[in-house]
Specification:
It is a single chain. The chain has 268 residues and is mostly helical. It has three domains: 60 residues; 75 residues, Cytochrome c-like domain (Cytochrome Bc1 Complex, Chain D, domain 2, Orthogonal Bundle), CATH 1.10.760; 96 residues, Cytochrome Bc1 Complex, Chain D, domain 2 (Orthogonal Bundle), CATH 1.10.760.10. The protein is 62% helix and 0% strand. Helix 1 runs antiparallel to helix 2 and helix 9 crosses helix 11. It binds heme C (HEC) (2 copies). One heme C binds next to helix 8, helix 10 and helix 11. The site of one heme C has 28 residues, from helix 8, helix 10 and helix 11.
């Protein structure tokens, strides 16, 4: 009889432990497989195979939810304008080959610069007379082409920024929505700076990011960046919501950077 009572006492606990163990182990396995497949798919769909594969590896070897050490020597995906110029554009533009405007020659660049940045960007990206599309290197990203143009034109007196498209200012409604999305999905890291996330009011951390332009930041938010999870780790988040969250973050970062934002600057 006492044996019988013992059994009824311990059975629920045993049952619970067995159930939890039974559910947890396969659940974890499935989760890891899904993460692996997602990582591989992200790598395959990307335009820049090598850095993306590298990124996929980084994501997979990262313990979930934490990136304790962000490698300061991490390869930068996008090369500088100077590097792209040296590797690709200088082949013609250093000497003025094929009638190309020569580097630093203001007379050759003046009228071209006067056409405006957008036109130059379109010509260099798509080709123009004897100027080959992307300087003949199809592997150059839009941003690398833009940076190379800015490197060349600014050396000839222009004052351009390597942005990819005119960035429309987000509406008040977008910013309000972005604030909500941010609070729900992004604040956990970007409010505190945990795992190396750029804090919203850290103007210094954001300065280089703002220079990259929104297209870059949207992409980083949607697809993930080194240490920054895609969509803040919430895969159900729509691209549009991820973008307005970035709009909100950029607006906050700009406010922190502006000298006329004493409240935020002082709070830091
Ligand atoms: C194979 C030679 C060649 C290479 C390499 C080359 N260019 Fe050019 N580029 C030209 C020539 C030629 C022109 C003049 C085209 C014209 O005005 O008819 C030109 C013109 C331009 C212009 C001015 C376009 C305009 O509307 O006036 C820009 C901007 C430019 N190149 C950017 C680049 C960039 C950026 C690279 C490197 C990624 C590059 N080029 C590489 C030959 C080249
Ligand atoms: C789990 C923590 C975490 C969450 C949640 C998170 N981020 Fe991040 N994020 C990071 C880290 C870490 C970086 C810094 C990556 C680096 O060093 O470049 C980052 C960087 C970024 C960057 C800059 C990209 C770059 O190249 O550094 C943007 C934009 C960004 N996050 C947007 C978002 C948005 C939008 C959300 C919410 C939808 C979000 N993040 C949620 C950790 C997070």
């Amino acid at each position: 009889m006492s044996d019988h009572i013992e059994m009824t006492k311990t059975t629920p606990k045993d049952f619970l432990l067995a159930t939890l163990g039974g559910l947890f182990a396969p659940g974890l396995t499935i989760f890891l497989i899904v993460m692996l497949v997602l990582g591989v798919r992200a790598g395959l769909g990307a335009p820049d195979a090598a850095p993306m594969a590298d990124k996929a590896v980084r994501e997979r070897i990262q313990s979930f939810g934490v990136s304790v050490a962000v490698d300061p020597n991490a390869p930068h995906i996008e090369r500088t304008g100077e590097a792209v110029y040296a590797e690709v554009c200088s082949g013609c533009h250093e000497s003025g080959a094929l009638g190309s405007p020569k580097f630093k020659e203001k007379a050759a660049w003046g009228k071209r610069i006067a056409q405006g940045y957008e036109t130059l960007l379109s010509h260099a990206t798509n080709g123009f007379n004897k100027m080959p599309a992307r300087g003949g290197d199809p592997d150059l990203s839009d941003l690398e082409v833009a940076r190379a143009i800015v490197h060349m034109t600014n050396a000839a007196g222009a004052n351009f920024q390597p942005v990819l498209k005119k960035e429309p200012e987000p509406s008040a409604a977008d910013l309000a929505r972005g604030k909500v999305v941010y609070a729900d999905n992004c604040a956990s890291c970007h409010d505190t700076g945990v795992t190396g996330a750029q804090k919203l009011n850290d103007a210094k951390a954001w300065a280089p990011l703002l220079k990259e332009g929104k297209a870059y930041l949207y992409n980083a938010a949607i697809k993930g960046s080194f240490g920054g999870p895609a969509k803040g780790g919430n895969e159900k988040l729509s691209d549009a919501d991820a973008k307005v969250a970035v709009d909100y973050m950029v607006a906050e970062a700009k406010a922190a950077a502006a000298p006329s934002a004493p409240a935020k600057a002082a709070a830091k």
